[in-house]
Every structure is written in structure tokens, then in C-alpha cells.
């Protein structure tokens, strides 16, 4: 089983071409709706009692939501704006609401999960969640500028508690204090994880182990609509393929990085999670095949 902990959010996303208000988003939403194409995924998160019924249905129809709590109060809300080329994001508002005092609990029986992802969230809470698992084969984390600025030491502690760290280029630079991404990758591994992945938006990603640096270009897309959640969708594809293969050898890891890029590329083709609702595993395998052809010249 894959267990995903993070935010389920109402996102307001502003691009120069359209504004989408209070649509379904959140790090856990993107990751789990991506990984569920590959393997059974269980969600641990919290929403308020303002969370729309239609969004609840999307989660219930696609995921195991035993670990999803509904509390009195407002759902986490994130408001952001993208610039003209949809590469840089400015965070306008981060309203923590019900996530602020939420005590995450891993449901009984789920502590045996083998693949665990903790996404953008309070790093202290991510550590608390990680500590509730028995012995996962792979634990992965992500974070976002908000937490690096607010809880830097906890973010570093969280990275020490996982065996795979997945970050954006800007976040990796902020944490490691170096402009060079290869150095950032190496320094992230020195903190403890066996694997590090640095994502570079439309330019792809770089996967690091102690012995390997594996750079992958971005999938060439003509239309990018909303980059929100690309990173978490990447993590979903990465963990999803590892879980369905249930192997951690280099070839499977490298294929999983490609599946991560594939899922990130689908996520950005429409607002919010809309593209995932129209997607099937054949579309994913087809794009994976195209990707491999592009890489194999
Ligand atoms: P990504 O684009 O992959 O970095 O993730 C974006 C998602 O993370 C959005 O759907 C947001 O709802 C969520 N998010 C943004 N800021 C935070 C935060 N400070 N804590 C938790 N989740 C966040």
C-alpha cells in the first residue's frame, strides 16, 4: 500500500490566462490521485466542514480515505499567481485553517505500509507521521518555501528522517545554500537520504544516488495550463511505479523517475486535478514509451 500524508486544499490559482477559485488541490491530493493509477493509495489528511461534496466524492471514488478527517472549521486555502511563461509562482496567501491544530494519526493496520509520502505540510507533523510507520521500504518527502522560511531546522530534520527527498530547484538551493544543483543533490544525500530528486519544472529533473547522477529532460508539452501540483504528481508517479514493481534497483528507480515526469506533465495540462479525471493507465504507458524514445537517440 502507498500512504500519502499532506494537504487537501482549496486552491485559488491565477495565471495570466485564467483565474480558478477554490478548486480542489493540495499536496496529498495531487500525489495520491497520481499514484492511484499505479497502486492502491491511502490518504491521511484533514479538511473543514466547508469542503465541497463534489470534491469529497472525487477523493472517495479514487482513494482509500480511511485517514481523511473532517473537522469543524475551514479547509486549508492556498492562493498563488503564475507569471507569463508559467514558470515562476508567487504565493499570495497561505491560510492553514484546520491543518494548524490537526494531530495526524496513521489508521490502525496502515503502519505496515511499504511506501510512504509526506508532502508539503508542517515538517514537524510530517516527522510525527513518519514515526508511526513500522518499516517502510521507501519514505519520501517534499516541502515548499513557506515551511523552509518558517521551520528551516524542522525541514532539515524531516529530510534526515526519509530515504528519498524530492524538491524543486529553488527549494533545494534555499535549503543547501548553494546555487549549483549537482552540489545541492550531493549535500542533500549527506543529510541521510539514499536518494534525492531535484525537479526543474518544465526542464525535467535530476535523480541522485551516492554513485549516480541521472538527469532527465522535461517532456516537451505545447500547452501548459496550470503548473500547480506538478511536484506532488511527480512524487505520485515515482512512488506509484516503485510500489507496483516492488523493487528498488537502479533500473526501476530510473523508470520511476520517468513515470514521475510523465505524471507531472499530465498534471499541468489542465487546471487543478482536472486532467487526472480524464486519464487512464494506457495514456500513461503511451507517454512513458514516447519519453523513452525521446531519451534514446
Ligand atoms: P507544488 O505545486 O507541487 O509545489 O504543490 C502545490 C500544492 O501544495 C497546492 O495544491 C497547495 O494547496 C499546496 N500547498 C501550498 N503551500 C502549502 C503549504 N505551506 N503547506 C502545505 N501545502 C501547501
Brief summary of the model shown:
With about 300 residues, this protein is α/β, with parallel strands linked by helices.
What's the helix and strand layout?
Blueprint: E1 2-5, E2 9-14, E3 19-25, H1 27-35, E4 41-48, H2 53-62, E5 64-71, E6 77-82, E7 89-95, E8 115-118, H3 123-130, E9 138-141, H4 145-150, H5 152-160, E10 164-168, H6 169-176, H7 181-190, E11 195-199, E12 205-208, E13 213-216, H8 230-245, H9 250-267, H10 274-277, H11 281-295
Parallel strand pairs: 1-4, 1-8, 2-6, 4-5, 8-9, 9-10, 10-11
Antiparallel strand pairs: 2-3, 6-7, 11-12, 12-13
Helix pairs in contact: 1-8, 3-5, 6-7, 8-9, 9-11
The CATH topology assignment is: UDP-N-acetylmuramoyl-L-alanine:D-glutamate ligase
Kindly provide the radius of gyration, computed on alpha-carbon positions and rounded to a whole number of angstroms: 17 Å
Bound molecules: adenosine monophosphate
Global structural class: alpha/beta
What is the average of the pLDDT values? Answer: 96
Percent range for β-strand residues: 15-25%
Low-confidence stretches: none
Number of structural units classed as domains: 1
Strand order of the largest sheet: 5-4-1-8-9-10-11-12-13
CATH class: Alpha Beta
* Portion of residues within helices: 25-40%
Shape: globular
How far apart are the termini? 36 Å
The second-level CATH architecture is 3-Layer(aba) Sandwich
Major β-sheet profile:
9 strands, mixed
Q: Look at the structure and name the CATH superfamily.
A: Ribokinase
Amino acid at each position: 500500500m502507498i500512504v500519502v500524508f499532506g494537504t487537501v486544499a482549496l486552491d485559488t490559482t491565477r495565471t495570466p490566462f485564467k483565474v480558478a477559485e477554490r478548486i480542489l488541490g493540495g499536496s496529498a491530493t495531487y500525489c495520491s490521485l497520481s499514484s492511484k493509477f499505479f497502486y492502491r493509495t491511502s490518504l491521511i489528511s484533514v479538511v473543514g466542514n466547508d469542503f465541497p461534496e463534489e470534491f469529497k466524492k472525487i477523493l472517495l471514488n479514487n482513494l482509500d480515505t480511511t485517514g481523511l478527517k473532517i473537522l469543524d472549521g475551514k479547509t486549508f486555502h492556498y492562493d498563488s499567481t503564475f507569471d507569463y511563461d508559467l514558470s515562476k509562482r508567487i504565493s499570495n496567501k497561505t491560510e492553514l485553517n484546520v491543518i494548524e491544530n490537526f494531530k495526524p494519526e496513521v489508521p490502525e493496520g496502515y503502519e505496515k505500509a511499504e511506501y510512504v509520502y509526506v508532502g508539503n505540510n508542517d515538517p514537524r507533523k510530517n516527522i510525527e507521521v513518519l514515526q508511526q510507520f513500522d518499516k517502510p521500504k521507501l519514505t519520501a518527502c517534499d516541502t515548499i518555501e513557506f515551511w523552509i522560511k518558517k521551520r528551516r531546522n524542522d525541514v532539515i530534520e524531516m529530510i534526515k528522517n526519509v530515504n528519498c527527498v524530492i524538491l524543486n530547484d529553488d527549494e533545494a538551493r534555499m535549503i543547501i545554500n548553494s546555487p549549483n544543483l549537482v552540489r545541492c543533490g550531493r549535500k542533500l544525500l549527506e543529510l541521510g537520504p539514499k536518494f534525492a530528486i531535484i525537479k526543474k519544472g518544465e526542464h525535467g529533473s535530476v535523480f541522485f544516488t551516492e554513485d549516480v547522477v541521472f538527469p532527465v529532460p522535461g517532456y516537451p508539452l505545447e500547452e501548459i495550463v496550470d503548473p500547480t501540483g506538478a511536484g506532488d504528481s511527480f512524487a505520485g508517479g515515482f512512488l506509484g511505479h516503485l510500489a507496483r514493481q516492488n523493487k528498488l534497483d537502479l533500473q526501476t528507480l530510473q523508470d520511476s523517475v520517468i513515470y514521475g515526469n510523465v505524471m507531472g506533465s499530465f498534471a499541468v495540462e489542465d487546471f487543478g486535478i482536472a486532467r487526472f479525471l480524464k486519464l487512464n493507465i494506457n495514456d500513461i504507458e503511451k507517454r512513458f514509451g514516447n519519453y523513452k524514445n525521446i531519451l534514446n537517440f
